[in-house]
From TrEMBL:
SMART domains in UniProt: FN2
Gene expressing this chain: BSPH1
Location of the Fibronectin type-II domain: 33-77, 78-125
GO-annotated biological processes: single fertilization; sperm capacitation
Methyltransferase in keyword set: no
Name assigned to this protein: Binder of sperm protein homolog 1
Amino acid sequence: MDSLMLLFVETTRNSSACIFPVILKTITHFPEVKDGECVFPFHYKNGTYYDCIKSKARHKWCSLNKTYAGYWKFCSAEDFANCVFPFWYRRLIYWECTDDGEAFGKKWCSLTKNFNKDQIWKYCE
């Protein structure tokens, strides 16, 4: 749920003062919904998230709506995003986690079917 706040800003131009209305969008945050279900991907502020995030919180959390509307929950092990198989990376299709293209040899996977296009990934456990 979004709320709007109206402010007035005074500026000076050519020795005259003008007042302009400015509308700011604020986000309402409700208490955690413990039995809610994470929705991925979700939009929050200026980003799109495919997994739980740690934004202004001690623990990772997720939105319960496709576009964050104040409803959220802390993530448990089963809430984190799952790898998507098969996925396309470079010129190959992968059916399991891979270390291809990873400088330190750590296995990773795509969170969408087309890594080449979306570039969304996570390390495998």
